[in-house]
Design brief:
This protein has 245 residues and is α/β, with parallel strands linked by helices. The protein is 30% helix and 24% strand. The protein is built from 8 helices and 10 strands. A 5-stranded mixed beta sheet has the order 3-2-1-9-10. Strand 4 and strand 5 form a beta hairpin. The longest helix is centred in the middle third of the chain and has 13 residues. It starts with a strand and ends in a 10-residue tail after the last helix.
Length: 245
């Protein structure tokens, strides 16, 4: 039988974007599962609303993102990867998280595997080093670079996030897929992808962008005095809030 799954990633604490995407996914009753590829929280400030919605569903599987990991490290008293203003931001998120969500976050694995119609899928927030830590962001990915990194992998489809742009590469029979960030966009659009695997193993991908009202979310950075808010509004949302002032 044909299988259809949704791929979401990089929600970044944006509840209204997440709700818009989940509502869109729910319209298609043939979508059987959702894979969330990390960075549930951080950057956006709607931490508890996002985690409440995600944990209310039984049809989502998760992998750990670097922001999730940093915030967990701070809560546990470990030194996070983040430094400077980013660390202050992560500390603020950690201070405002409802402690009931910490066990859920702490149990999220770094990678996942799945098989649909003999196609092997690998899910990860971003490419890992031999030491099992995220490698630096490659802003100019190519099929050749990806093939080299995954040369020992048996996966037919590698799904990841972290880099907030679409990746859709196919090489040597392997598909590399990143649907782009759900929660961070220079327009009021929330991105995700639908992956369909036919009963003969044929694969198709549909990239979706769902419009949503981001006004209150964007204005909330100033209202709540979110650390590093000016940088976040410019760097991750293209200063869209200025049209509301």
């Amino acid at each position: 039988m044909e299988h259809k799954i949704a791929i979401i990633t990089d929600i970044h604490g944006n509840f209204s974007a997440l709700k818009a995407v989940l509502d869109d996914i729910d319209k298609d009753k043939t979508t059987e599962h959702i894979y969330c590829l990390g960075d549930l929280i951080g950057i956006g400030y709607e931490t508890n609303e996002v985690l409440q919605l995600l944990t209310s569903r039984a049809d989502i599987s998760f992998v750990m993102g670097n922001h999730d990991e940093a915030i967990l490290d701070i809560i546990a008293g470990r030194e996070p990867y983040s430094r400077g203003k980013e660390k202050v931001h992560h500390q603020w998120i950690a201070a405002h998280i409802d402690r009931k969500f910490i066990p859920f976050l702490a149990e999220i694995p770094v990678t996942r595997d799945a098989v649909y119609n003999d196609k092997r899928l690998f899910f990860v927030h971003y490419h890992l080093s031999d030491q099992h830590v995220f490698i630096p962001l490659d802003k100019e990915p190519t099929e050749a670079k990806l093939d080299e990194h995954y040369r020992t992998s048996t996966a037919d489809i590698v799904c990841f996030g972290h880099h907030h742009v679409i990746h859709h590469f196919k090489s040597n029979g392997r598909l590399y897929l990143n649907p782009s960030s759900l929660g961070c966009n220079y327009q009021p659009l929330a991105a995700y992808a639908l992956l369909t695997i036919g009963d003969q193993g044929e694969v198709s991908v549909a990239f979706r962008e769902v419009p949503y009202d981001n006004k209150e979310f964007l204005l909330g950075f100033k209202r709540l005095n979110v650390p590093d808010g000016d940088y976040i509004l410019k760097g991750f949302f293209g200063d869209q809030h200025l049209k509301f002032l």
